[in-house]
Amino acid sequence: MNLSLAFEPLISWPLLGLVLAPLLLLALVGLWFRQRGAVFRFAALLALTAALLNPVLLDEEREALKSVVAVVVDRSQSQDIGERTKQTDEALAGLQQRLGRFKQFDVRVVEAGKSEAAEERTETRLFGALESAFRDVPPSRIGGAIMITDGEVHDVPGGTPDFNAPLHALITGNDQEKDRRIRFENAPRFGLVGKPLEMTYRVIGTNNEAGSVDVRVSVNGEQVSVERATIGQAMPLQVTIPGAGRNIVELAIDPEPDELTDTNNRAIALIDGIRENLRVLLVSGEPHAGERTWRNLLKSDASVDLVHFTILRPPEKQDGTPINELSLIAFPTRELFVEKIKDFDLIIFDRYQHRDVLPILYYDYIAEYVEKGGALLIAAGPEYAGESSIARTPLMSALPAMPTGEVVEKAFYPRLTELGQRHPVTRGLDGSATEPPHWSRWFRTIGVENPGGEAVMKGADDRPLLLLDRKGEGRVGMFLSDQGWLWARGFEGGGPHVQLYRRIAHWLMKEPELEEERLTADGRGMMLEIRRQTMSDDPGPAQIITPSGKAMTVKLERAEPGVFLGSIETSEIGLYQVGNGDLKALAHVGPVNAPEFTDVVSTENRLKAPAEATGGSVRRLAPSSALGNLAGGVTLPSVVPVRSTGAATGNDWIGLRTTDDSVLKAVSRVPLFGGFLGLGLLLLALGSMWYREGR
């Protein structure tokens, strides 16, 4: 029962004051001068005033509201270490049992750290979860919060939390834990391919551990060195980036005895390899309509340094032209093909024929250059079928096909072979999906016999048009037509000459993306995506090893000719190993070196300041052998409801505040000066005054 007195005046307050003020003044004057009947007049005035004020006795029926208590449970990956998950589950069950005894508490359990988003798994964000739990709760109804965590929380506010209630933290793990970890101090995002890259790293131990430890350095899964590092000091590291595109540099140390986890015994750096400008030597034979096609393409590529020579006049031609007018500079044959031939990434012979410009021995040097890893492209014209063909030199050992001497002059549409539809050089060429292809015709094909390598395009009468071959450690390409300039000039709508020529050049220079057999993997969010390029019909499933060492398989589905894709949703952040056949790849899922694994030793220090600022406490969940109230294998403090001004913590108890808020359910009204009772009192007062005045 909640009784209260309210006034519901019969007239407005200003009018009421206007009526009663003069009467009250007259009554007070009468009392002051002790006039006869002044007391009765004053009593009558009071009765009139009470009647006009209309006092009402209110009896309110209210229901007390509950205080909202949040129990925030840390479910991040660091909580999977040791017995922490078990301690967390036991503590949660014990708290729910204790809190269930108090009807004045509305308990909300919030689990944090298991979001599907990768960025939310990399950090333990308990205060964000706490804010969400109290978003619809008025500040006066917040009873407090209890966090069950290992103490490694990454969103601790700088000041006091935004609610005026005690915050308590129950810490899993124990105070004797030890862990050793490694991290990169300085890791550039980019590096030049084949050049040393300077980096720094640090090995960190618990409790100011000293000494030294061996660090294994791996690049793209291959161990390159073992370094000796002093624990606690920044150490220099120099690695060589092996290839263009993404490279993974991994540092690893052996776990020590009784270490918490070896998850943070590895550190990853993702470095994009950048090639220095590729050096290309283009040697053109006698002038022809498409002579500048290759030159214009290579000059337009900012990543290519081009050296171009055109043989305008063979040595046997004697027409009396002065030597100093034959060229701007002499053709430096010895410098290019003997002294500096290894400096070139690609040599192109564009309709070139042997005319003693190059000594016959130099062709042997070129063949040796290819055998040892160089790249050679032959853009063949009618000269390749003639008596002065370079196929009749020592270069023949590096060529994928020998000429028959036949030149086919016949209109045809260049088409992809079945092999070419899968090969990354020609796969998906613009215009190749229709029949006939959506590009212009060509009119000349050079006949060859016993073609080697892979014929990825065909010309007139299904003759080979583009051959790609491997010789030793190097690569050779042969274009058996000189009609590509028709595409460049827009004849009959032209064709994808830039796309095709650039792919050929980059395949010859071993661009990873154009490898026929290639396995790549990448992490997008918490998805691991796998891409397999192959010339086979079915590469089979991919094998995966997770960061924790678990093995699984993923089926690869055909996405387009020569490309198979697969994906799998993961739950672990870290480095995944992917294998298919003889190929292997590495992929990192989630942010690199996530804070969740930077430090996994349980601690009370991070939550101590915000807990004490709210009147709460931080304490460890002691083992079951400790004194106190037990809940399974942990010791929990007692839960005590406290008033808003009382203490909220003690040696073996934690306090949660109760609220004074309530909700109104019903109101009973009893008018005190209404009905016959009020009328009788008013008439009695007026009658007494009239009677006294009549005396």
From TrEMBL:
Tell me where the transmembrane regions lie. Answer: 12-32, 39-58, 672-691
* The entry's keywords: Membrane, Transmembrane, Transmembrane helix
**Species this chain originates from:** Mesorhizobium ventifaucium
Lineage, opening ranks: Bacteria, Pseudomonadati, Pseudomonadota, Alphaproteobacteria, Hyphomicrobiales
Its domain of life reads: Bacteria
Q: What is this protein called?
A: Threonine dehydrogenase and related Zn-dependent dehydrogenases
Family matches, as InterPro entries:
Class_I_gatase-like
